Amino acid sequence: MHPFLITDNWYDLRDLGNLSGRLLELLDDALPFGLVYVLAALIGFAASFLIFVLPSQLIVGVYGERKLIGRIQSRYGPNRVGPFGLLQPVADAIKLMQKEALTPKTADRALMYLAPIVFVAPCVLLFAVIPFGPNMVFADIPVAILYFLAVSSIPVLTTFMAGWSHNNKYSLFGAMRVVAMTISYELPLVLGMLGVVLFTGTLALQGTVLWQKELDIWLVFLQPIAFAIFFISASAELNRTPTDIAEAESEIVAGYLTEYSGMKWGLFYGMDIGYAIAAAAFGVTVFLGGWTLFGLEKWVPPWIIFIGKTHLFYFLFIWTRGTLPRLRIDQLMTFAWKFMLPIALLNLALVATERMFWIEQEADDSIVYAFAIINIIAAAAAVYGWSRALGYRPEETPLRPRLVSEAGGFVPLESGGEGAT
Amino acid sequence: MTRQWTGPEVAAIAERLVPGSVDRSTPVACYLRPEKLVEAMGALQAAGETDFVHLTNLCGVDFWDHFEVVYHVQSFVQNAIACIKADVLDRERPALPSVCPVWRGAWMQECETYDLFGIRFEGHPNLHRILLWDGYPGWPLRKDFLSMPGGLQPGLDEFSGTKRRLPPPVKVVE
Amino acid sequence: MSGLIKSEPFTLNIGPQHPSTHGVFRIKVKVDGERIVDAEMVMGYLHRAMEKLAEERTYTQNIPFTDRTDYLASMSNNLGYVLAVEKLAGINVPERGNAIRVIMAELQRIASHCMAVGAFTNDTGAWQTPVMWCFRERERVLDLFEMTSGARLTCNYMRIGGVAFDLPKEFEPATRRLLADLPGFIDEIEGLLVGNEIFLARTRGVGALSAETATNFSLSGPMLRGSGIAWDIRKADPYCGYEKYDFQIPIGYQGDAFDRFIVRLEEMRQSVKIVQQALDALPGGPHSTQVPLALRPPAGEAYARVEGPRGELGYYVVSDEGPSPYRFHIRPPSFINLSALKEMTVGGTVADAIVVLGSIDIVVGEIDR
Lengths: 421, 174, 369
Fold this sequence. Notes:
The complex is a heterotrimer of chains A (421), B (174) and C (369). Helices cover 63% and strands 1% of the residues of chain A. By secondary structure, chain A is mainly α. Chain A has a domain at 106-390. Chain A starts with 15 loop residues before the first helix and ends in a 17-residue tail after the last strand. In chain B, the strands form two sheets. In chain B, strands 1, 2, 3, 4, 5 and 6 form a six-stranded mixed beta sheet that branches. In chain B, strands 7-8 form a two-stranded parallel sheet. Chain B has helices spanning 7-17, 37-46, 106-117, and strands at 3-4, 22-25, 30-32, 54-62, 67-75, 80-88, 95-97, 120-122. Chain C has a single domain (45-368), classed as Cytochrome-c3 Hydrogenase, chain B, CATH 1.10.645.10. Chain C has 369 residues and is of the alpha+beta class. Chain C is built from 15 helices and nine strands. The N and C termini of chain C lie far apart (46 Å). Chains in contact: A-B, A-C, B-C. At the A-C interface, helix 7, helix 12, helix 13 and strand 1 of A face helix 4, helix 5, helix 6, helix 7 and strand 6 of C.
């Protein structure tokens, strides 16, 4: 065996699953039956919290996002608390815990208290199926993709609870928007993921990663449409900026968060980042090869590769947040139903044909490279053609005003004026 | 340069378009009679020679015994501006027809003039106190508004309709 | 659909404390779902009775009041007022004073449009990035004001008969450095937003006003020009020697929020051109004429207007030969531009109403005075 291949020995810390597996084996012998499953959960939770959740949440989610957006906006971002402002998230957390969490008189108190708590639980559950390395997956269930999509739609209910319980019109607006939007965006998301599943033939996340490793191709090249749909739908469900209509601060103040303060708000804020990181981890696993990096995972611990990729993916969310304006709700709905859904269906048909061809002709595995080229061209053609069909005419849109030299009355459109572009 | 219509020039045209509409004219402004104001304004707006499509400014002036409402109107095509005025002689119940049928944009400036001078614009779609609150005593831009009527002091407690609940009297413990 | 599901409109108070009302301004909208069926403005939270106060103070003492009306364009407000008093009293301003006034008014237009463009894009949801970029450039303009007049926001710089102080010697190089950078900045903002499909979707066709409606509603400034009417007081009724400078009037196509936005961007470019020309041809001589401290203009009235950043900024001053104006009236452009708000918002969604309000570019200090 190659010396750098990851082994199953407990001292091979390139995969932390080895150590914990060995530990649990020993404990299983010593302890009564069943107790080890509880311990496994606790160890998994502690380990993932230490190496992933805490650094991601605090350093990347709060500090990194604020710092990066600061740089995008040509300002410094946090730089006062601690070295380079690194302790800013901690200071924020302490401040939030000290703050009084106000409850309006007319609010539904039970729901209002329950919503942030219910919001937290699914986020923790989501990470259970994410493979961090060859053995580092807590529950490698065969329907992991389905599980992820199902659990990730629970927070919608929570946000509606939050918005409804305040008895505030702005919150109600946000809650209604969130429900309407999420229902619309689940559909293209699931259809897009179906294309991926058709190719890989498995619903397990570890299986998806191994499939990509075996064929040496990332699914983002095979499924560009599905990747784009996943990214857009994820940012819609996460209320990230081009689609953050549920908490659009310039329109409905803070949407369903309007009346929250203190740690109740802090839980929403922290878990928003948690969900975003979970979505990034899912996207990395399905589309970007998970913990593999074209052979580099033999030398570098796979979990470091995975975390790095996740954070880079999360950077995409930050980037769109810092640059793009927000869409209106009807435009978002139109986009989901009239644009993404047909494109997703088209993608599904294409994938089905290709998969059929692959199996019927018993073609070599290297045919996926041909499929990748075909799919990228088809994706570009479909997106361009469908948007033209829906009335996208950039060349007919004047982007500069007309210029006239003399004051006077109305200048009709035909007469143009100088410098019209 | 924008051409400035003198009062007599506007008066001649207004008198021709709507006979009996002009009261008098000074070099600066043309004074229209209130009863024919809207008709004359509409005629001046529609007529090609004046073409007063844009009501620039509308405000009131208090001259102790009467009010004047000043309209500055202009034409874009001819690049000309004119000053038209109307007298409001009744100081107790000042009123003037509203020019909203002619220039719809006049409604906010008329509301403001009503708010600060108390001149009622008849035919106005939604005349209300736009800057001050309903129930404010008096009309502040009138020259005789030197202090609050009835010796009231500013502050919400003193105005009718906006009574605030007073805090309970402090009990002095002997 | 609407026949099947019974819905009932409810009232939503946008403001007076709302992130997008740009001050204490309130719109009571009646919404049916997301659609607005009725809109009513409530204002006056910042009313300071400036027109009454001005009747008690001398002509010179009133100049600081005009700063406080439109606090984002204090130089333009100063200018409008002193022009009205000069017209009333027949005072001539020396060449250099006029050139300095033009430079200041145009720099103020750049600063004010920076704010307008930034706040407008923030309303469309571009999360603060354009605002910060705009503030970065506005800051440099305000630095120039501080260098010249000692104040950044409420400059109180214009005087009857000229300006308060001559330009300091550092002013010209600093201004030239700024002017060299500004076109690049405007291109940057344009590159970020104008071709952006989301921004276009949010602003095109929103709050559209035809030329006739815009005229009938007494609108002025970028709102009027956005509707395709070539009207700019600087061209139509030149003051302070604007006829000497070469610039153009940008006009829009259909009078929607997007047209107002691009008109503002182009006006910033034109202002850069004007300041450049004014600096190149800055005449020598005194910056102000001697005017008696207690000015008593002859009895009469004067209406003078300037093209402020938000539109036609007029001052109507009546004199009775006293030391203070008999009547002092401001024609506030953003107050009058608001009169068409209901026309623009009803039928749209709540998000559209916010975009429309941002495109009007209101300053509450000016609305309430």
